[in-house]
Design brief:
8-stranded mixed beta sheet; alpha/beta; 2 domains; 15 strands; 35% helix; globular; Ala_DH/PNT_CS2; Rossmann fold; binds pyruvic acid; nucleotide binding; binds 1,4-dihydronicotinamide adenine dinucleotide; 7-stranded mixed beta sheet; nucleotide-binding; binds magnesium ion
Length: 371
């Protein structure tokens, strides 16, 4: 299989889709890997390491894309990348299509086969290729929130742990999945008073058991949300309905009840965000203020810690990349129903029901595409 690894071009995105170690595994199985020159530099992987692992370092962007059968990326394709996709290409990357109709239409028009990391499932009901980056983003959410609470950032001037004689900050996490648990864990580590809301009682039970009373777990209702948000210094948005647009759980009206300088960190922004006032920001300009409340809504948080994130992401993607390379997309997806859930677009048709629903389109059953 001819595999291409483009350099990521989203704002301040320094991750790379394959490490030299993964290239070595692919090359050993007889696959050809072309890596765009300097693609790994931001994550600390120089071209020389890729070349030593068996990759061809490609300077010519047209040649990189035109000669590829499988394109492996990190972030959703940017408009200039969408233009390069064509029938016969298989694209394997994060897509988050329900948040972006123009990208969805662009991928349909390309007629390429597009497999999303974030909708692949596992036997435990998890999302194995989203989880590593959710762990990173959840942990970062508290760093981002702590920084945003500083006066110079528009925050209320609150130090998360407080000091003797001064109470710590109150942190509320909405959604107690992978992002939510990692955010809660960081906030607890800093000495915050932490509350996690979720609609899944089973999930709240797991958290309650795991944190042995150090964490408040609250079933998520409109009342509970209003109360928690009113009292919080930092609110982390961490809900997910896989493949779908995030539900808007905090409305603009509710901001009026928050203290000025409080902070919303909307990690769910890559699925459209769970606060009504959220809009995607970049690492170059991560925050803005609405009604006195600081919003941090960076859609590629893990890109800022590219070394850690690249290693964590590729640990998880490796078996899937090997399967695609060895068997082609039809062979790999036919053998693994969890992998098949990753298929979002093929030959101009949407294949994931939640994405189709977001734009009132018809979804084709991906199982019918495998023969
Ligand atoms: N901004 C960024 O850089 C990154 C964003 N993310 C995003 O973070 C979000 C969360 O991801 P994960 O934690 O991995 O998902 P997850 O599936 O592990 O957890 C989501 C949780 O939300 C809960 N939930 C769903 N609807 C809810 C509602 N209405 N009220 C309360 N809880 C609700 C679920 O029960 C579940 O426990 C996703 O949108 C993901 O794409 C992940 C990594 C990086
Ligand atoms: C999951 C995601 O959007 C990211 O890692 O950037
Ligand atoms: Mg995006």
């Amino acid at each position: 299989m001819k595999i291409a690894v483009p350099k990521e071009i989203k704002n301040h995105e320094y991750r790379v889709a394959l490490t030299p170690s993964v290239v070595r595994e692919l090359a050993a199985r007889g696959h050809t890997v072309a890596v765009q020159a300097s693609a790994g530099e931001g994550a600390g992987f120089p071209d020389a390491e890729y070349a030593a692992a068996g990759a061809r370092i490609e300077q010519d962007l047209d040649a990189l894309w035109d000669n590829a059968e499988l394109i492996v990326k990190v972030k959703e394709p940017q408009p200039e990348e969408v233009k390069r996709l064509k029938p016969g290409h298989t694209l394997f990357t994060y897509l988050h299509l329900a948040a972006e109709e123009s990208l969805t239409r662009g991928l349909m028009d390309s007629e390429a086969t597009c497999i999303a990391y974030e909708t692949i499932t596992d036997d435990q009901g998890g999302l194995p290729l989203l989880a590593p980056m959710s762990r990173v983003a959840g942990r970062m959410a508290i760093q981002a929130g702590a920084h945003s609470l500083e006066k110079a950032q528009g925050g209320a001037g609150i130090l998360i742990p407080g000091v003797p004689g001064v109470a710590p900050a109150k942190v509320t996490v909405i959604g107690g999945g992978v992002v939510g648990e990692n955010a809660a864990r960081m906030a607890l580590g800093l000495g915050a008073e932490v509350t996690v809301l979720d609609k899944s009682l089973a999930r709240l039970e797991v958290l309650d058991h795991r944190y042995q009373g150090r964490l408040n777990t609250v079933y998520s209702t409109a009342d509970a949300l209003e109360t928690a948000v009113r009292e919080s210094d930092i609110v982390v948005g961490a809900v997910l309905v896989p493949g779908a647009q995030a539900p808007k759980l905090i409305t603009r009206d509710m901001l009026a009840d928050m203290r000025p300088g409080s902070v919303l960190v909307d990690v769910a922004i890559d699925q459209g965000g769970c606060f009504e006032t959220s809009r995607a920001t970049t690492h170059a300009d991560p925050t803005y203020v609405v009604d006195g409340v600081v919003h941090y809504c960076v859609a590629n948080m893990p890109g800022a810690v590219a070394r850690t994130s690249t290693q964590a992401l590729t640990n998880a993607t490796l078996p899937f990349v090997l399967a695609l390379a060895d068997k082609g997309w039809q062979g790999a997806l036919a053998e693994d129903p969890h992998f098949l859930e990753g298929l979002n677009v093929h030959a101009g048709r949407i294949t994931h029901p939640a994405v189709a629903k977001a734009f009132a389109l018809e979804a084709v059953d991906p199982r019918t595409l495998l023969s």
